[in-house]
Design goal:
Radius of gyration: 21 Å
Strand content: under 5%
Shape: globular
Number of domains: 1
Length: 134
Amino acid sequence: MRWGVGLIMVSVIAAAGGSLEARQKFPPEKFANLQIFPKDTSPGVVINAMKGFTRALGVRCQFCHVGEEGLPLEKFDFVADTKPEKQTARMMIRMVGEINGQITKAMPDAPAEGYQVTCFTCHRGAQHPQHAPQ
């Protein structure tokens, strides 16, 4: 009898669209697993940066994050580090920071003058950096 009641409860929860797991909220109040941004970076700042990355590379969230096109962002696993593209993105962000640091050291007015490297500098809207014609 107990098995029957338990099975009915699980069926009712599933039919109602619920889940036994806690539903994620997007955007969260605080992001987890931040390795490039300071841990206390606001969600709005992180989301705006991610939008910039997607535009610069012509990709969508699932390019670096675990999730499927068309699903709500609440269904994505943004914390997971399983996709190699996410590791590459972190490496590239560090590289951009180092380059901009060197530019600013040589030319202190560089940031104010707009002389900064961004993802778009090389990617120009493509997943992989675009090279000059031969």
